[in-house]
């Protein structure tokens, strides 16, 4: 990678905290709030084993309720910090900050969040980074507003200048832009030397237009973990097989093939006739561990074994996420890691 002052860290680099937003009756979780609260409690319990959690709350009543629920679950509340900020929903991977290191400080990239191309109202979410910055959550940082729609779940980096993304998502957001133009914009804003595009891969029940964080993720500068499908009768088989072939053809910055770790495929999870996007690729890396979405399927154990092979120096911690996929996302989608030094 070329020497640059600005750098986009990989997710496995040291973190200050993980940022989430507590679900409440004014979010899309309202109809199944009890179920999803249990997932959030399990998630905060897992995060705080390894580092702090910063929890956005809509108001003081939501904070009091969340604090009581977490305290009753015997969570280490010294590692929990609440911040009041309005939000439409809780998908902070896409509405939270994309953080570049800038020497000893940070640049918070505040891209436009459009509710995944206008599918949902996102007026409050689009203001979240600015509000958190103004609230003093982040230290040694400057916010850069960028009038360009980009979600954090659409990109993944090795921390050394290589970005992985999908053409479907970026093309849906910017249909008039060429791949060359989008490559230049992403490389420039995110300080990348190269952008690797995937043309295949999708999940039923996904309304992000194929975010890469549900499909393929860097595990190291030379390793990629990806969601596979080995069942020829499954509707995902052709696309995920084609994506696997694309990944096998990719090369690292020094021209070597990537070490590939295919994740197993859970049995179809259907809710009111609609298949849900149960991806194991939607894991979260924290200090010393990988938090893995678990779906109550026999494939959970096999997914845990794959992640243990891909991340041999980290503990693999399953977090029950079946309730999350009802709203078309999973564990990585509701979290945003904050690099070490960003939070005071």
Features of the shown structure:
single chain; alpha/beta; L-arginine/glycine Amidinotransferase, Chain A; four-stranded mixed sheet; 9 helices; globular; hydrolase; Peptidyl-Arg-deiminase_porph; Agmatine/peptidylarginine deiminase
What does this structure look like?
The protein has helices at 33-48, 60-72, 92-95, 115-118, 128-134, 167-173, 179-190, 237-249, 299-310, and strands spanning 6-7, 15-21, 53-57, 80-84, 98-102, 105-112, 141-149, 155-157, 162-166, 194-198, 216-220, 223-227, 259-263, 270-271, 274-275, 284-286, 289-294, 315-320, 336-339. The protein is globular, with a radius of gyration of 19 Å. The protein has a 4-stranded mixed beta sheet, covered by helices on one side. It has a single domain, classed as 5-stranded Propeller (L-arginine/glycine Amidinotransferase, Chain A), CATH 3.75.10.10. With 344 residues, the chain is an alpha/beta fold. It is built from 9 helices and 19 strands. β12 (223-227), α8 and β13 form a beta-alpha-beta unit.
Brief digest:
By secondary structure, the chain is an alpha/beta fold. It is built from nine helices and 19 strands. Helix 2 links the parallel strand 3 (53-57) and strand 4 (80-84).
């Amino acid at each position: 990678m070329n020497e640059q002052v600005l750098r986009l860290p990989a997710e496995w680099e040291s973190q200050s905290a993980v940022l989430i937003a507590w679900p409440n009756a004014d979010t899309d979780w309202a109809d199944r709030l009890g179920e999803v609260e249990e997932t959030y409690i399990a998630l905060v319990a897992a995060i705080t084993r390894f580092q702090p959690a910063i929890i956005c709350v809509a108001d003081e009543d939501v904070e009091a309720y969340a604090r009581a629920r977490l305290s009753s679950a015997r969570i280490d509340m010294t590692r929990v910090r609440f911040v009041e900020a309005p939000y439409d929903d809780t998908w902070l991977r896409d509405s939270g900050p994309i953080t570049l290191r800038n020497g000893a400080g940070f640049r918070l990239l505040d891209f436009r969040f459009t509710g995944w191309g206008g599918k949902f109202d996102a007026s409050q979410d689009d203001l979240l980074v600015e509000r958190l910055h103004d609230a003093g959550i982040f230290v040694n940082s400057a916010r850069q507003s960028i009038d360009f729609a980009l979600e954090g779940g659409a990109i993944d980096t090795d921390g050394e200048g290589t970005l992985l993304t999908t053409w479907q998502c970026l093309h849906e957001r910017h249909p008039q832009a060429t791949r060359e133009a989008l490559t230049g914009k992403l490389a420039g804003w995110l300080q990348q030397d190269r952008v690797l595009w995937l043309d295949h891969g999708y999940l039923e029940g996904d309304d992000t237009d194929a975010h890469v964080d549900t499909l393929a993720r860097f595990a190291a500068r030379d390793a990629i973990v990806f969601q596979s499908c080995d069942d020829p009768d499954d509707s995902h088989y052709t696309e995920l097989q084609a994506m696997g072939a694309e990944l096998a053809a990719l090369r690292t910055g020094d021209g070597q093939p990537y070490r590939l770790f295919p994740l197993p495929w859970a049995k179809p999870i259907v809710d009111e006739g609609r298949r849900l996007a149960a991806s194991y690729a939607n894991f979260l890396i924290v200090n010393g561990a990988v938090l893995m979405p678990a779906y109550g399927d026999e494939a959970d154990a096999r997914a845990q074994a794959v992640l243990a092979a891909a991340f041999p120096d980290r503990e693999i911690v399953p977090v029950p996420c079946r309730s999350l996929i009802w709203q078309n996302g999973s564990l990585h989608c509701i979290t945003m890691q904050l690099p070490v030094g960003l939070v005071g």
